[in-house]
């Protein structure tokens, strides 16, 4: 029963994404840009942490 609920939620999400893309492509592009900026910031933060840890935790 849980698998069917997951499929329904997934299909609803796909339909919503397609609706946003079709009705307002500029807003959809903005959402994608925000997502990629978030991923980029997270990767940069992880890189900064790893550099800090590799230097023995020194500033």
From TrEMBL:
<protein>
    <recommendedName>
        <fullName>Secreted protein</fullName>
    </recommendedName>
</protein>
């Amino acid at each position: 029963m849980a698998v069917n609920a997951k499929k329904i939620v997934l299909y609803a999400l796909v339909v919503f994404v397609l609706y946003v893309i079709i009705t307002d492509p500029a807003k959809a592009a903005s959402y994608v840009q925000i997502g990629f900026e978030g991923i980029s910031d997270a990767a940069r933060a992880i890189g900064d942490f790893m550099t800090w840890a590799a230097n023995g935790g020194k500033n």
